[in-house]
Design goal:
4-stranded mixed beta sheet; 2 helices; globular; 82 residues; alpha+beta; two-stranded antiparallel sheet
Length: 82
């Protein structure tokens, strides 16, 4: 999964906020209760060299799946053009 950060924020703090939301139940547009079924919240991992904003999480669906999350900070480029 790719995350495109467009506002200046602390990415690691934001990941903590995402993790707190992973355990919540939500109601989708069909009125169904849905949940991320996170077995392991976003956790740091080293996908490539010095790239500091890579994470992974594990979720339970029909079987357990691992998602890799890369957060790309475009905030300086976006905010300069507003």
């Amino acid at each position: 999964m790719f995350g495109f950060i467009v506002k200046d924020l602390d990415i690691n703090q934001n990941v903590g906020e995402i993790n707190s939301m992973l355990q919540e139940d939500y109601v989708n547009d069909k009125g169904e209760t849905v949940n991320s079924h996170a077995l392991l919240p976003l956790s740091r991992c080293n996908v490539h060299g010095e790239f500091g904003y890579s994470y992974y999480s594990v979720h339970s669906c029909a079987k357990d799946i691992t998602l890799y999350h890369l957060m790309f900070d475009f905030s300086r480029m976006i905010e300069d053009h507003q």
